[in-house]
């Protein structure tokens, strides 16, 4: 998709250093200490100058901390991509109460947008219900995976293997999974959990697994390179996505594309993908007994996930974005 949009004359702005054609590196040094919010502040102050300097005719902005302060009208059409709203996030994460201060700015940025792309129907509905955005202004284009990268392998599953991939932090629910796992080990002593990812809670989770007596059943892999993810998903009998909250849940569709069923929480984006029993099942966040039982059910009655729905494939994603951004 990058090459197709590039051919249509699009420029890409980010603080990344790379050699991609038509990528413009923006130096956010003066506000770098503010991280993503600093990027948003820079956009708020510099958008008009950048539009004029590069002769931009249309702008696609990804919201969250990187776009929440762009609450001003711009002289060109603005297509805003919404991964989730701050109001959605605050409903599930009381500890991030400070983000409530951004809600009025975020609401204003959506009101000023020419068009909005939501990454899930749940996020689309949140924009309508929470911010009063007109439904006809919003298009759902689901996040997607490249099925040439994520697909079933001939080697098959490793018995009693469970996989988690994601950040090791509170929002991703890793502690919920670790605390639920002793009940799985008690029923299936040979079970093994592979935890892929890094984050602020990594050492705490290592210590917790030792304290719970399951250290021999849990391997912390650290960061897993993209080229190794498909093999990791393929070895699992189930992948667990125990997040407190997800606006979508890219790990869910990566695992499904690899032919592996998923146990996830009843969070907006995850629930939408796992509706029914086709690809897996959901449990309420915090219910350890339910999570342990769902994992055990997948291990005791293994079956592959059916092919990924077309709406989650790269081809549909590409077609949707080309319609919104290039038309």
TrEMBL record:
<feature type="domain" description="Glycosyl transferase family 1">
    <location>
        <begin position="153"/>
        <end position="307"/>
    </location>
</feature>
<dbReference type="GO" id="GO:0009103">
    <property type="term" value="P:lipopolysaccharide biosynthetic process"/>
</dbReference>
<dbReference type="InterPro" id="IPR001296">
    <property type="entry name" value="Glyco_trans_1"/>
</dbReference>
<dbReference type="InterPro" id="IPR028098">
    <property type="entry name" value="Glyco_trans_4-like_N"/>
</dbReference>
<keyword id="KW-0808">Transferase</keyword>
<dbReference type="Pfam" id="PF13439">
    <property type="entry name" value="Glyco_transf_4"/>
</dbReference>
<protein>
    <submittedName>
        <fullName>Glycosyltransferase family 4 protein</fullName>
    </submittedName>
</protein>
<dbReference type="Pfam" id="PF00534">
    <property type="entry name" value="Glycos_transf_1"/>
</dbReference>
<dbReference type="GO" id="GO:0016757">
    <property type="term" value="F:glycosyltransferase activity"/>
</dbReference>
<feature type="domain" description="Glycosyltransferase subfamily 4-like N-terminal">
    <location>
        <begin position="21"/>
        <end position="149"/>
    </location>
</feature>
């Amino acid at each position: 998709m990058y090459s197709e949009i590039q051919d249509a004359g699009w420029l890409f702005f980010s603080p990344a250093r790379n050699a991609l054609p038509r990528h413009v590196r923006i130096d956010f040094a003066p506000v770098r200490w503010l991280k993503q919010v600093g990027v948003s502040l820079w956009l708020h102050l510099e958008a008009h100058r950048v539009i004029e300097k590069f002769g931009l005719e249309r702008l696609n902005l990804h919201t969250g901390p990187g776009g929440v302060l762009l609450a001003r009208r711009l002289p060109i059409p603005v297509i805003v991509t919404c991964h989730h709203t701050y109001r959605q996030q605050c409903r599930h994460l009381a500890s991030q109460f400070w983000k409530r201060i951004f809600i009025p700015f975020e609401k204003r940025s959506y009101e000023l947008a020419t068009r909005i792309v939501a990454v899930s129907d749940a996020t689309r509905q949140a924009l309508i219900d929470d911010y009063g955005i007109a439904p006809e202004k919003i298009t759902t284009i689901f996040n997607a995976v490249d099925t040439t990268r994520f697909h079933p392998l001939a080697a098959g599953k490793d018995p009693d293997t469970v996989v988690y991939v994601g950040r090791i932090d509170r929002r991703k629910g890793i502690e919920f999974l670790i605390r639920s796992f002793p009940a799985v080990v008690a029923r299936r002593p040979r079970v093994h959990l592979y935890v892929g990812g890094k984050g602020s809670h990594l050492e705490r989770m290592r210590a917790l697994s030792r304290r719970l007596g399951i250290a021999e059943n849990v391997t912390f892999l650290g960061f897993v390179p993209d080229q190794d993810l498909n093999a990791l998903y393929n070895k699992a009998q189930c992948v667990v996505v125990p997040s407190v909250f997800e606006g979508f849940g890219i790990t869910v569709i990566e695992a499904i594309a690899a032919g592996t069923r998923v146990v996830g929480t009843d969070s907006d984006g995850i629930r939408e993908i796992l509706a029914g029993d086709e690809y897996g099942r959901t449990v309420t966040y915090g219910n350890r007994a339910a999570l342990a039982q769902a994992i055990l059910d997948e291990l005791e009655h293994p079956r592959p996930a059916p092919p990924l729905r077309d709406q989650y494939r790269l081809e549909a994603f590409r077609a949707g974005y080309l319609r919104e951004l290039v038309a």
